[in-house]
């Protein structure tokens, strides 16, 4: 496995792969890797000749400076994990290598057909502009045949699909296919997240209340008398009743439009919860 830190070295390697007719899988990450990331990488290794993993804490997608500063980083451990599961190339640039000063300072603006106006987009202004800024740059540089993304960040995945299929960038990335990968959870149900590293043992125990409530809501939704609005409120009340958890939002929305829905058909519930100072997200599909 080779670790690459500059765009020019990356492009040389990509050109070599392309000239040999090799297929490329790309897994964009922000590092502090866990089994959730590993599942994406393993799938890419299975489905492509070469797998590139980017490890880059992208400053332009953080609207909260403290969150950016506290984001866990451990490139040595990440490289060990990636080597052990068969990744071929790790791209780990500095922010200065990735962006010019202008690109760092100027807010990138993009039309996502409204997908960025709800939930995470509403709570973290500019977040998805930053995500698309970095992901589109990685697509240009790596020219992957397949890009792997987790359903843990369901809204992000919807926006990446939109960017590749319907935005002004559609068609720019050749025959790139976006591969949706399911959420990997601890046995306890807690969705794996790099931010879990910031939780103490007791906070981790408390955070279990999030997934437990989401799973319980599948049963509540099956009760013929319960409406979407009632289940939504019950999830919020149940999580908020747990000492140490505070819901920022829980919205049951249509899986395609991300707009509020009054039916459980094709619906997904997306939640953001503060566990102490740590902001955790999770989601559950109703069918
Ligand atoms: P991040 O490093 O948090 O930006 O995540 C990089 C990629 O890994 C994204 O596509 C995430 O959706 C995905 N991912 C993160 N956590 C999980 C998880 N628990 N299960 C599956 N995919 C995940």
Structural notes for this entry:
With 287 residues, the protein is α/β, with parallel strands linked by helices. The protein has 2 domains: 2-181, Rossmann fold; 194-282, Pantoate-beta-alanine ligase, C-terminal domain (Pantoate--beta-alanine Ligase, Chain: A,domain 2, 2-Layer Sandwich). It is built from 11 helices and 9 strands. The protein has helices at 7-19, 35-47, 65-70, 75-84, 95-98, 101-105, 119-123, 127-142, 154-165, 201-222, 228-240; strands at 2-4, 24-29, 50-55, 89-91, 146-150, 177-181, 245-254, 267-275, 278-285. A 6-stranded parallel sheet has the order 1-4-3-2-5-6, with helices on both faces. A 3-stranded antiparallel sheet has the order 7-8-9, covered by helices on one side. A hairpin with a 2-residue loop joins strand 8 and strand 9 (278-285). Helix 8 packs across helix 9 (154-165). The longest helix has 22 residues, at 201-222. Adenosine monophosphate is lined by residues 29-30, 36-37, 39-40, 149-150, 152-153, 181, 183-184, 191-194.
